[in-house]
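COMPLEX REQUEST
Ligand: cytidine-5'-monophosphate
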Amino acid sequence: MLSLHKNPKGLEQKSLEIAGELSSIPPGEPVLVVCHLDADGITSGSIIASALLRSGVAPHIRVVKQLDEAAIAEILPIKAKYVIFTDMGSGQRQLLERFGSAERRIFIIDHHQPPPKEGDGAGAVGSILELNPHFFGFDGSNEISASGTAFLVAKKMSSENASLAPLAIVGALGDMQDKGDRGSLVGLNASIAEDAQRSGLIAISKGLKLYGFESRPLVKSMEYTLNPYLPGLSGDEGACFKFLKSAGVEPRKQDGSWRSISDLSNDEIRQVTSALIKYLISQGLSSQEAESVVGVLYTIKSEAADSPLRDAREYASSVNACGRLGKYGLGVALCLGDRAGALTELRELISEYRKKISGYLRWIENNPSSLRVMNSVQVILAGSNIDDRMIGTIISIAFSMKPFTRSRPIFGLSNAEGVVKVSARGTPDLVRRGLNLGSAIREASEQVGGTGGGHNIAAGGQIPVGKEEAFISIVDGIVAKMIGGVKL
Ligand code: C5P
Ligand code: C5P
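STATUS: Structure written out below.
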């Protein structure tokens, strides 16, 4: 049963129980870690893998797009006595029960809302040992991510694993859990970040939340910023250059090279900040959204000053790019500490990722007939025009672009192999009004013969081809009941 009261002792106890079993795996025993492909998935899998490596066990890591029967059928033949699912599994527990046996011990380390009435989660049911903060009254959609949950286990395996805290922060930021004041982490995430700051692993500061603010020229960080989307500036270097000039800040040094934030005086930083906020308000953003360009920054101190991994948000976006472009090995290598060849490969991949995103955003702009504004939801029917691995990322960005509004949740539908992938995103405000996308998608997709789930604020699923219209009309009705129709 889900717990409404916070039970930190219970969470600690369960972490300890799992840590105890993982620590007692004999060296040489085949172990498989299966994780989701996004930043939180890859960081959570890497945290567990690092902790196992430290205890003398070399796990095999498998990154998967989703955990369905097909993915399980692929994993099944892999010989492993221990299988650890991270950032997935709570929603598929029934499916996984069939997979466990006397020869196979299964662990789930997840933070998604578990489906109603499925085991009590707080103890081992069948052959599965599951850790999910929801069972102990902690909200896995904003208080702790899968990587944070994995970190709790890793720390119980060895105090030396406290060094993995930056990865837990990267995972939480990748899952956009920075919903506290000024884009700060809250709850258990905040405790992990504060501990990591005290031990000198990260720095927490306030500043301009532009992409790669430390490692890139100012003009580039502005051009590369997609969260929040800067209308007229994101993706347009020329426009960013002109914007800085008109704000009275010279984008170049005297020798012609670009200036970065560290080259600006405090007055100049203030000038850029206030010009940017004013500009965003003039573009129709609410003052709260516009001011979100200033916020809490998390810097990983051991990363080089010019590295895309120094700013924890940029790190998250980098690992996400690896996952979304299918470069799973690269994502894992980075999280396990490879900083040689992996960094060079990453820089090329980031540029490819950005080009893909721009192309998809252009497609949305040029195809208004594929956009649907319903009573309570808005939908992008992407067909085969947007990669199903990227649709979640694209709707997150498109959510703050015209013609979409943040007053209703956004859905994206994209063709995958033989099915249609569904992704949905909401806002904290909509969640406060009663939105629960995880249960809305689960219910609507089940009604059309599909599956789905996730968090209240972000969820996904798969439905059969040809059921798109039925699905969006059902989900529109479900969301209407949750938040009411949207008054325009
Ligand atoms: O599988 P998982 O839980 O890791 O993915 C969560 C997804 O939800 C991420 O892609 C993240 O970007 C999105 N999200 C969001 N807004 C939030 C929380 C999560 O868009 N407030
Ligand atoms: O795929 P996408 O990024 O849209 O997923 C949003 C959230 O929904 C993620 O947390 C993901 O793990 C979850 N999800 C799920 N079941 C699915 C598909 C996605 O729980 N079938």
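REMARKS: The chain is about 40% helix and 15% strand. The pocket of cytidine-5'-monophosphate (ligand 2) is lined by residues 36, 66, 91, 112, 392, 423, 451-455, 458-462 (CB under 6 Å).
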